[in-house]
What we know:
- There is one protein chain.
- The protein has ten helices and seven strands.
- It has helices spanning 16-27, 39-51, 66-80, 103-131, 152-172, 204-207, 214-227, 236-247, 249-257, 260-273, and strands at 7-11, 31-36, 55-60, 85-88, 134-139, 177-184, 231-234.
- Helix 1 crosses helix 7 (214-227), helix 3 runs parallel beside helix 4 (103-131) and helix 8 crosses helix 9 (249-257).
- The longest helix has 29 residues, at 103-131.
- The chain is globular and about 50 Å long.
Amino acid sequence: MRIRGKTAIVTGASSGLGRAVALLLARRGAAVALVARRRPLLEELAAAIEAGGGRALVVPADVAVREEVRAAFEAVVRAFGTPDILINAAGVGIWKPFADVTEAEHRAMMDVNYWGAFHWIRCVLPEMKKRGRGHIVNVSSGTGKIGLAVTSGYSASKFALTGLSESLHRELMRTKLRVSCVHPGNMRTGFWNEEAIDKRLLPPLVRFAPMLSPEAVARHVGYCLWLGMPVRTLPVFVGLLTRANALWIRLGDLMLWKWFLPLLVLMLLLLFLF
């Protein structure tokens, strides 16, 4: 899909990956609707986009609340018309052992990470079908393909989003509508609060892995749009890990906890297999 002249909605646009994606799309010539709860940060981003010659619309909304999503969608349609692109980048994560995470915290992660995307897709998809074109990109996570300790609620919500994305991709593959899912590893954002995580519960491969920048992940979101790619998993070792784990969960354990030599051997093996 060509980006210039298109209309895009980006959720979670106030910071992190959502902000980086909004800036990328604006630079490529899209009119961008900025969705998040924090209006001041959205207004600051909109000003930056407009200073660069782009078009931006501030649409404060909580993606977990269906009525707010519907009102925000209608505001976008009034201002920009039917959107061509939807980027579901809003997310929340709480990193604690399962027994320490409250039911309210589990529900909050599911409400934002899964139901938030669900609400927006329910609004956007019928209009895209009427026009016969459109592209939805859902931002899941590496832990949306392989569950780690202390990510039970987060992984559950991201696995749900991954399953929704795969199903919609196959449901719409004979049309001109596209659905993609991006699975990034650790990113350098306020989302990954290391002070709130007991690092002893994390495997070495996660503790010592290099952090991705939001801008790098945003470029991969762009690749999905430009090339119609249904899935992107990054960095490379996360993709290899999820494939090994899908083949046999003990291979995933081996790479996570005793990873030096096994990782090297498995990387070479999987490169030949895939």
